[in-house]
Amino acid sequence: MIIKGPILIPGVPDQSGDILDEETIRKAAIIIARNGVLIDVQHTLRNVGKILELYVLDAPTPWMTGSLPKGTVMVSIDVHDEDIQQGIRDHKLNGFSILAAPTRYMDELDRGIT
Description:
Layout: E1 2-8, H1 22-35, E2 49-56, E3 61-63, E4 66-68, E5 73-79, H2 82-89, H3 106-109
Antiparallel strand pairs: 1-5, 2-5, 3-4
């Protein structure tokens, strides 16, 4: 099963109330693309899929019943875990979350990103 959606949206608070700007989000997208990430559910660190596509929107883009702003990071994921696929079909799993390192480590990860 392949699923697609936004993983980081500039100016929109996440579940923790953090709000990221477009520049920070673009840097995060580059780090993800360069280093890869584990695709898990609820930060269990149990691999359930693989990123097939990752890109940053260059302009506001219609999405479902609204619009996503420029700078939003979109992802397509191949979910290979059958239990997770069923959770998606049953609408029990309906969004993405990013497990991120504390900001003091970002400088070490993004050396050379411009």
